[in-house]
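pls design
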């Protein structure tokens, strides 16, 4: 699909935060935002997607060769914040092998619900002298998509009318006769402002030898999409405004409604440079490998044609890793991980101040195999520093995370696995320092500088069965959080017509599981037919 959330939503334990056709992030077992890390070739997307569900990930699933959903010890190679899991999109933009001949692929798609058109193409070419070139591009455009009936439910429509009644004493007697006429004027059968326009272009070049390779890529992404339901609100700041509203409501209602309903859209741009290098060593360490990425990201929230808020993130991330040579069933990797981010939101309605975030970490990941038993373990220590010069605030967190897992193969068809972990996550700049309106989500967000680090203690049991014709997967999990960070609405409190949401922390427990199965019938005249099913359950409760 065009977004990573929609692409993965039918995988076990994964659902989508669908916020219109342009923005959809993965939710893993009830966790989203900063608890699910999305990577491109092992490096973070370096965008603003985790800050809010209306912000799109700067990733193009159309070019993916493999998409990994990682849980358990392996995810500590990429960060301690991904207690929900890690999504790694591998797209081959930096070639690591010399192709025997020209490799090319193309894909075109059409969708009837939104008159959508999309195309993607890539090519990998051996230039000689150990040089390999990679080029790819994507393009998609869709209009507002079709829906059955009104976009606003009857309950939501009535709640808006009740809000208007608070400002108009004479509204009640005319309510019934005007109701049908008011609904007749609403847009129906199309979801207004659900359009998307996206284009990307990537070029990569690698030098490949017998001892390894080094490669670089440049990626440019441009995307524009609407936020359904997001609109500019009128400001109700004082009693005089309310009195004027009562007197002039009838004669000016239609005119004011038009002014208050400026549609919100997002214009997103990112330029990204990646570097990947591998050098074969021999001896105790098989190889050393470097993954690095730099990105200059910006997205503008538009209220109609007016610029509302501009989000920017200039970031750098790198992992330097030593991979051990496999010996007597044991292998592993040890590395250093650095992340740096300069994040800002500029504009009259910016809700997050400019912040600098720096993370330095060391980690090790180890595996041991004994015939039918496989054991894995990982440890990670990182130091996070978040600085806001505008607020004269500085926060520093030391985080230690550990994870261990094992799986036992009873035979070639049956496998039982057990995983346990303890991870720590520091609050983000949005959770600490937010203070302002966010019109795309219709909320007024208020951060909390007293937030402590979040600790997750979890265990998962997994069973796998696979034969030639069918498979069955069953997972059960429980995760106990200490100081779980979340947003909660403050009852009966509004600022500028927006509900106020405060950042709070509380102990919380998430538990549930997934069962997935599929059966493939024998091929009949070269036609293969299969049937599959998936059941997921998550229950979350704070104290």
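designed seq:
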């Amino acid at each position: 699909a065009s977004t990573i959330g929609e692409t993965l939503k039918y995988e076990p334990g994964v659902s989508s935060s669908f916020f219109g056709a342009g923005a959809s992030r993965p939710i893993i077992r009830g966790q989203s935002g900063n608890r699910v890390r999305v990577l491109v070739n092992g490096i973070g997307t370096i965008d603003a997607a985790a800050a809010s569900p209306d912000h799109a990930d700067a990733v193009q699933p159309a070019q993916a060769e493999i998409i990994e959903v990682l849980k358990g010890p392996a995810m500590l190679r990429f960060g301690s914040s991904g207690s929900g899991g890690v999504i790694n999109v591998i797209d081959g933009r930096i070639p690591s092998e010399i192709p025997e001949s020209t490799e090319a692929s193309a894909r075109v798609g059409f969708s009837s619900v939104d008159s959508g058109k999309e195309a993607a193409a890539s090519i990998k070419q051996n230039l000689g002298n150990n040089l390999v070139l990679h080029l790819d591009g994507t393009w998609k455009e869709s209009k507002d998509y079709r829906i059955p009936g009104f976009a606003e439910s009857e309950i939501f429509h009535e709640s808006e009318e009740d809000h208007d009644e608070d400002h108009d004493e004479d509204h009640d007697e005319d309510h019934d006769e005007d109701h049908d006429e008011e609904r007749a004027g609403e847009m129906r059968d199309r979801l207004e402002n659900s359009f998307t326009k996206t284009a990307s272009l990537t070029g990569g070049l690698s030098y490949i030898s017998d001892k390894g390779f080094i490669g670089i890529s440049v990626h440019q992404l441009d995307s524009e999409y609407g936020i359904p339901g997001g609109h500019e609100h009128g400001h109700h700041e004082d009693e005089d405004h309310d009195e004027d509203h009562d007197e002039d409501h009838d004669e000016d209602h239609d005119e004011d409604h038009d002014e208050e309903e400026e549609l919100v859209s997002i214009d997103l741009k990112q330029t990204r440079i990646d570097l990947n290098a591998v050098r074969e060593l021999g001896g105790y360490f098989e190889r050393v490998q470097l993954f690095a990425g730099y990105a200059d990201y910006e997205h503008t929230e538009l209220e109609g044609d007016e610029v509302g808020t501009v989000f920017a993130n200039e970031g750098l991330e790198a992992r330097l890793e030593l991979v051990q040579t496999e010996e007597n069933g044991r292998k592993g990797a040890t590395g250093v991980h650095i992340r740096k981010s300069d994040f800002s939101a500029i504009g009259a309605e910016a809700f997050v101040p400019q912040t600098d975030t720096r993370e330095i970490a060391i980690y090790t990941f180890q595996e041991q195999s004994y015939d039918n038993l496989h054991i894995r373990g990982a440890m990670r220590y990182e130091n996070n520093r978040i600085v806001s010069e505008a607020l004269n605030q500085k926060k520093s967190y030391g985080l230690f995370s550990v994870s261990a897992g094992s799986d036992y193969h009873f035979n070639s068809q049956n496998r039982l696995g057990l995983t346990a972990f303890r991870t720590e996550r520091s609050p983000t700049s949005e959770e600490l320092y937010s203070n302002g309106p966010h019109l795309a989500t219709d909320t007024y967000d208020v951060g909390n500088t007293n937030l402590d680090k979040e600790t997750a203690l979890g265990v998962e049991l997994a069973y796998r069965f696979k034969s030639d014709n069918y498979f069955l997967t069953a997972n059960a999990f429980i995760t106990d959080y200490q100081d779980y960070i979340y947003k909660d609405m403050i009852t009966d409190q509004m600022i500028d017509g927006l509900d106020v949401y405060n950042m709070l922390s509380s102990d919380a427990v998430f538990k549930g599981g997934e069962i997935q199965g599929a059966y493939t019938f024998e091929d009949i005249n070269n036609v293969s037919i299969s049937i599959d099913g998936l059941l997921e359950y998550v229950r979350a409760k704070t104290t």
